[in-house]
Design brief:
alpha+beta; Double-stranded beta-helix; seven-stranded mixed beta sheet; 10 helices; globular; oxidoreductase; 2-oxoglutarate-dependent dioxygenase activity
Length: 324
């Protein structure tokens, strides 16, 4: 009877891709076709897959295109049309569609849950591969539940008790300018946003530069599954994450308190670099990576699954939509 009501529900190949304890559910049409042809059955299956696995890969469907990404993502919640309090350079492509982080192709972007350095973050994030790189350029993922399980309990307790302070400096020409981060050139509007989100701020250099501090969680409990996950970017924002030559060059130019970004424990005391190295090692040992194919769409629960970016060669265009 199900097949008569919705014949497309049984026209999909389904398999689990797994590596290092991280799993992604893949759906592939048996005979090709547009995503719209598989509605309305597919969204419910994607939602179940995201809750169970953390991520769902849609592969082999007709190209969705940048114009179709916002509409698809909106089936899973209201899409975000602004990248508020962002930490990386992005370009807005369409209504709710952005470029993925625009860092140089030779740079590795470590694992992170989108905007886990704040107290407000997207619920879901959707990556769409328009152009696959000639070499590499994967978007590795890691299950945040598995990361939590593999971390030393003593390290987890220390972070849970003290939390994470993120210190950011804008306006020094070394990172994303505050006007872009806050989406305004009105300082009063910036101050209102900071007060509303419990972000400490101070204007420097006669108001040309801005410094913010915010103390946030190290772990989070998923509102639907009840599972606790590792959920912060202490390792990513910390100065030790920079390549040694870049770190030395920056510290030759600015004092440590003027670095574009850095992390401390919530009380302002330093985080031992060895602890951050342990976190990075757990992420590396938990990652699942696969090469992009043009037309691929990767749907992630942003709490359950982290993501990153591998270096690449050649042209690469991966677009992003997020739901609130």
């Amino acid at each position: 009877m199900d097949a008569l009501i919705n014949p497309t529900e049984h026209a999909l190949h389904e398999r689990v891709i797994e590596s290092n304890g991280t799993r992604v559910l893949e759906f592939r049409p048996k005979d090709g076709g547009a995503l719209d042809a598989f509605m309305p059955a597919l969204p419910a299956r994607i939602e179940r897959g995201m809750c169970e696995y953390g991520g769902v890969l849609l592969r082999g469907f007709d190209a969705l295109g940048a114009n179709g990404l916002d509409g698809f993502a909106s089936r899973f919640g209201q899409t975000l049309h602004a990248y508020e309090f962002g930490s990386t350079p992005r370009s807005k492509i369409g209504k709710g569609v952005f470029s993925s982080t625009e860092y140089p192709a030779d740079q590795w972007i470590d694992q992170h849950n989108e905007q886990s350095y704040t107290r407000r973050w997207p619920a879901s994030i959707f990556f769409y591969c328009e152009i696959a790189a000639e070499e590499n350029g994967a978007t590795p993922v890691a299950d945040s539940r598995v990361v939590l399980e593999r971390l030393d309990p003593a390290l987890r307790r220390r972070f849970a008790e003290r939390r994470v302070m993120y210190v950011r400096n804008y306006g020094n020409g070394l990172d994303v300018p505050w006007e872009q981060v806050f989406g305004t050139d009105d300082r009063a509007e910036v101050e209102r946003y900071c007060r509303a989100n419990d972000i400490a701020y101070e204007w420097l250099d006669d108001g040309e530069a801005l410094r913010t501090r915010q103390v946030c969680q190290s772990e989070w409990r998923h509102p639907l599954t009840g599972e606790t996950v590792w959920f912060n970017q202490a390792h990513l924002f910390h100065v030790s994450n920079l390549p040694a030559d870049v770190r030395e060059a920056l510290l030759d130019v600015v004092d440590e308190d003027r670095l574009p970004r850095n992390t401390y424990f919530g009380d302002g005391t330093p985080i031992d670099t060895a602890m951050l190295d342990e976190i990075r090692a757990v992420y590396r040992d938990t990652m699942l990576a696969f090469p992009w194919q043009p037309g691929d769409l990767l749907a992630l629960d942003n709490v359950l699954m982290s993501h990153g970016r591998a270096p690449f060669k050649g042209k690469r265009r991966v677009l992003v939509a997020m739901t609130g």
